[in-house]
């Protein structure tokens, strides 16, 4: 009798342990369903966030500064502007007689040493492969005024005078985020806003938060005779502005192609900068 009670006790203990252990779905089906419910903010695994995911995570809480509108997630425009695009080459920074394009900038004294290194690394990642040279401002009338404002955002192209580019610390302190906003300042819109994007991605309109559908509008773009770049530093993430129902952008024909990234400008990004500014290596 005593041994029978002991066996029942052991059996009951094992049964209790079994019910308290986590169940791993070896097929991955459950995991797939959970992942399909992620959205661009808190539901994205931090280890898988790309540059645009990080920008949207920070800007999700952003209220646009007075007199400005933030469009497409991080492109600033004044209320006097009716569009985020610029006609022809009117928004490009001028090319010097030596063949380089010098973009003067000021860095706010509010940044600490690590912030400055991060931002300057983002500049160097562009300058190392292009004719663009970011130089500290001395007396130039047109320059980037880089400030730790609320959020990560930039105007499109050169707007003239003191031009604010916001890189909040610490949220925007990725060198890739700095490169992304600097490419806006050089005149580039997001990759999935290209006029030919429908050949390369499917926008899943039903999965987009209705208030943000306008962020997926195609732009009239000069595609610079360059291939569509899924790995562009300017590409939205797969779940950008998702309502939680699933991805908002699906590559085609292969839906599993990674889109966006977290490092910095791609080779095609650098190529397109050189083509747009008609200088430097274009191969």
Protein model, in words:
The chain has 283 residues and is an alpha/beta fold. It has a domain at 47-191: Collagenase (Catalytic Domain). 26% of the residues lie in helices and 14% in strands. It is built from six helices and nine strands; from the N terminus they run αααβββαββββαββα. It has helices at 2-20, 29-36, 51-59, 113-127, 175-186, 267-276; strands spanning 68-71, 75-78, 101-107, 132-136, 143-147, 152-155, 162-167, 201-203, 249-251. A seven-stranded mixed sheet has the order 1-2-6-7-5-3-4. Strands 8-9 form a two-stranded antiparallel ribbon. A hairpin with a 6-residue loop joins strand 6 and strand 7 (162-167). Helix 4 (113-127) packs across helix 5 (175-186). It starts with a helix and ends in a 7-residue tail after the last helix. The relative contact order is 0.16. Its EC number is 3.4.24.-. Residues 82-280 form the Peptidase M12A domain. Pfam families: Astacin (PF01400). The active site is at residue 181. Residues 1-20 form the signal peptide.
Summarize the structure.
By secondary structure, the protein is α/β, with parallel strands linked by helices. The chain is built from 6 helices and 9 strands; from the N terminus they run H-H-H-E-E-E-H-E-E-E-E-H-E-E-H.
Topology:
Layout: H1 2-20, H2 29-36, H3 51-59, E1 68-71, E2 75-78, E3 101-107, H4 113-127, E4 132-136, E5 143-147, E6 152-155, E7 162-167, H5 175-186, E8 201-203, E9 249-251, H6 267-276
Parallel strand pairs: 2-6, 3-4, 3-5, 5-7
Antiparallel strand pairs: 1-2, 6-7, 8-9
Helix pairs in contact: 4-5
